[in-house]
Amino acid sequence: MRRGREEPGWLRGAPPPRWARLAPVAALVVLVLAQAVTPGDVELGYFLAALPPVAAFAYGAVGTAVFAALVLVLLGVPAIGVAHARGSDLATVAAVGLLSVVIALVRRRRDAQLVSVRTVAEAAQLAVLPPVPPRVGPVHCSGLYRAAQRGTLVGGDLYDVRAGPFGVRALVADVQGHGLAAVATVAALLGAFREAVLDDTELVAVAARLDRRLRVEGTRPDGAEGHPELFVTAVLVEFPPGQDLVRLVSCGHPPPLLLSGTSVEEVAVEPGPPLGLGLGGAESSKVAEVRPAPGDRLLLYTDGVTEARDRAGHFYPLAARVPVLSRDPGGLVRAIWDDLLEFSGGPRDDVALLLLSLDGTAAPPGRARGLREAAARLGERGGRSGLPKAGC
C-alpha cells in the first residue's frame, strides 16, 4: 500500500499517458487540415516546426526522429500544399528536429535512472516502515500512513504491530519534525520496539527501552549532545495472550479512541512525559487497562489528524466524525483519510492511523449490544456504560 500522495506516473519515470502521445499527432493533423481550408496567402504550416520538441517528451529518440522527418517532408515538398519552406527555413527546422531527438534520448535515459532510484528508495522506505498486516495473532489491524513531504513514504510518524511471547503489542508514535530528516529516528525506534516485543515482559519496560534508544540517537559519536531537543510522543498498546484485556501506556501522545457501536470516547490513560527528554518518566509511566466488549475497536492516531485545520482555522473533529464515518463500506481508516482531505485540503503534517480490534469484532450487533447492556446493569462501579474502564 503506497502511503505517499501519488504523483502522476509519467512524472515519476513511468511511460507517458496515451493523451501525451496522441497530442503531437492530433496537432499535426489539425494543422494540415487547417492549412487545407485556409486561403493561400496564409501559411499555418510553419507551426509544425514546434511539434518535434513536443514529441520529444512523449516518444523515444526513434519516434521523435520519425516525427521530425515527417514535419520536414510536409514543409519541404510544395506539392503537398502545407508550406513552401526553402533553404535556411528547412535547415532551421532540421536543426530543431535534431535537437528534439537529443532531448528524447536524454529524457529516456533520465527516466530509466529515475525509475531505478525511486524503486530503490521506495523499497528502502518500505523496509523501514512496512504496511501493517490485516491480522497479527488474534488482533485485526487496519492502518494508514501519509507522509507530509511529497514523494516520500516515510516521515516523522510511525506505527507497528508485532506478536511476541507476551502478547500482541502495537506502537504509534510521532517524532519531532517530519519528512526525511526524521527517518533515521523512526528506524531506530522501530528497531528498539521490535526487540522489546520479544524481550521485555512489561509494557513500561518497552517505553523505557524506547526512551533510552532515543537518548542515544540524540548523542553525537564524541559523547556530546547532538540534538538535545529531540523527543517523541508515543502510545503503546498490549493485548495479553488469552485475556480479553488491553493495556496502554501513553508518553505525551493524544489518547486513543474507543469505538463501541456508534459511541466514541477517549481512553482514560494518564500521559507520561514524551520520550527522549531525559525526565525519567518512561519507567514510571502509568498503565491503563481496558476490557473491551465484543465489537469494540481501538483507534490510535497522531496529531497530524487532530491538528489539521480547515480554511477557517478549525481543527479536525475526529471524535465527532468517527460515528458517521464508521458506516463507510470502504473501511473506517480510509474514510477518515478521505474526510480529512476534504476538510483540510491536505494535511500539513504526517498522518498515521491504526485501528485495532480483537477477534470479537465479528460478534453480531444484537449480541454485542446485549453484553454491553448487561455490563451496564451490573457495572454501577464500572465507570462506563457497557464497557467497564479500569483506572490508570
Round the mean pLDDT to the nearest integer and report it: 79
Global shape: elongated
Q: What Rg is obtained from the alpha carbons, in whole angstroms?
A: 30 Å
Task: Give me the secondary-structure category.
Answer: alpha+beta
Would you kindly provide a brief summary of this structure?
The chain has 392 residues and is α+β, with helices and mostly antiparallel strands. The protein is 39% helix and 17% strand.
Write up what this structure looks like.
The N terminus and C terminus are likely disordered. The protein has ten helices and twelve strands. Helix 5 packs antiparallel against helix 6. By secondary structure, the protein is an alpha+beta fold. The strands form two sheets. The chain has a six-stranded antiparallel beta sheet with strand order 1-2-12-11-7-8. Strands 3, 4, 5, 6, 9 and 10 form a six-stranded mixed beta sheet that branches. The longest helix has 41 residues. Strand 1 and strand 2 form a beta hairpin.
